[in-house]
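Interim report, section 4.2 (structural modelling).
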Amino acid sequence: MSEIVLKTEGLTKHYGGVHALQDANFELKMGEHVAIMGDNGAGKSTFVRQITGVERRTRGKILFYGKEVNFDGPLDAREAGIEAVFQNLALADDLDVPDNLFLGREIIKFNLGPFSILDYKAMRKATQEALVRTAVKIPNIRNPIRNMSGGQRQCVAIARTATFHSKLTIMDEPTAALGVQETAQVENIVRTLKEAGEPLILISHNMRQVMDLCDRIVVFRRGRIVANLKKEETDGQDVVAYITGAKTQPEYEGAA
Amino acid sequence: MAETAHGVGGLKYDHSKRARPPEINVLIALVLIVLVFEALGALLMDQSFLFDTRGRFDSIFNEARLKIIILQVAIIGIIALGVTQVIITGGIDLSSGSIVGATAMIAMSFAQVAEVNGSPNPKAIFGPWAMDLPVTVPILVGLACGVIAGGINGALIAYTKIPPFIATLGMMVSARGVAKWWSKGNPISFPTDEYAAIGAGMTPVFIFIFLAILFHFILKYTVYGKHTYAIGSNEAAARMSGINVARHLVLVYTIAGVLAALAAVVLSAKNLTAQSGMGIMYELDAIAMAVIGGVSLSGGRGSIIGTCLGALIFGVIISGFTFLRLDAFYQEMVKGAIIVGAVVLDQWRQQRNASKS
Ligand SMILES: Nc1ncnc2c1ncn2[C@@H]1O[C@H](COP(=O)(O)OP(=O)(O)OP(=O)(O)O)[C@@H](O)[C@H]1O
Ligand SMILES: [Mg+2]
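Predicted structure of the assembly:
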């Protein structure tokens, strides 16, 4: 087995004329937690969408555990072991918490192809357990998601990632809408992943959080990677300088 | 349930105050409408609408009228079961009435008897080889028509990404064309006894009830149902969760087509004849039943139970008008108003939901 979990080479995504992501060379090692930072519209979410197969990349190579992969969709990526919390929360508003947690991978009682019978009881039980583990407060898990607060919705999405063991977890701004306690909970989940040696890509605008949780910071600016910083060798001010464009690492020169 | 029951995370949660299912509101509406007709009956006609006040029947109900009501809605109700699923995915199906027409014509031409009163069947479509066939043949032919028409609808919507409104509008026009072309506009009559039995007496009602229970179960307890709601609720989320949305939509529209085809078989069996104009406007009646029953046109919400109640409301209103001896054109005017009213109600519900969150 290779020591490299994920590697992208020249990963590029254009939306018509918009160069949302340009020649991204990225590497993630076994057990490593990497933060991606950058201003709004820098291409962070775009990067995640290419890796998880949500969109078709314009060009570039993606290697997952040393093997080149071409995911046809997020299910493909998930089957390969990549769990993602997307920024725009992939939740179905009219369904309840267990339904959302297990959407697309329902527990079934009898296999009848598309008409397989659902095992509601097992899914509810697993949901309770997942929510207890993440300390999420939801009065009634059988309420439709529509009636829940933004933070509760976010917690459901995160609980979903934490429920299924994965070879790589990606979280796109998981705590953006959360209160103090819930943020702390999510950060605890991230720490458990670290202890378990599960690799993680965390997109966040929260400098303190990134410094607390991650080993390395990759900075995106206008669709390009402009810095790759070890936590020990940098500080908040330094990172901000890269984000705003005051600084660019020599090896990424000519990028911005 | 105990008042102190706790939800996950320790928030107090009172089970007894759980929001009541929306179907309850539809049921209340049904009861209210019946009461209105009862009051009008007492006032204007000096007789009861649904109850037996003259001792003509064994039970307290006016069985004859009840039977007419459910028989009337049973056939369009079968269509509405499919339309409900389509609308829950956030789509619409305008083609079901025309699929009924085309399927009735095609299926009926495989259900004919060779001889009527000793002379050859005057309405024969095919030669002797297609006469007196076992009843499974016209049924299977009919279902195949539904699979093809519904499958084309679904494939157009899923793979060319044209709006369901346009795709099924095209099918509505084309399938009606097929119905007219099939026998050059001539009616097709004289089915075998076995075929006629499908539509005889209360059989259509039993078929409808069976299908309603079946699809209630499928929508509530199977992966298919879950994905149907998920797609209508948030198609992007469904896709990101790994649901094959295109394949699922093809399946949903195919099932809707098959149900329309089944309705065609039952209808032609009941009428003992098929005509190219059969099923005109049925698609709107079916959509109306679903919408009245609380199925949201924006997708994600609704149920088979709701649609069945919607179908009953529909039947009660139609038969209430007959009961009050109002002319058919009043019925149509009011029908239109009911459909629009149900959609307005749905919009209100959504705005209230939106302002809450
Ligand atoms: N589907 C799309 N079509 C066209 N342009 C798009 C599309 N998706 C993203 N973009 C553009 O690509 C650029 C990068 O967007 P992206 O969502 O990756 O930003 P981000 O770094 O995640 O920002 P934020 O911090 O606000 O989440 C933006 O300029 C955005 O407008
Ligand atoms: Mg983003």
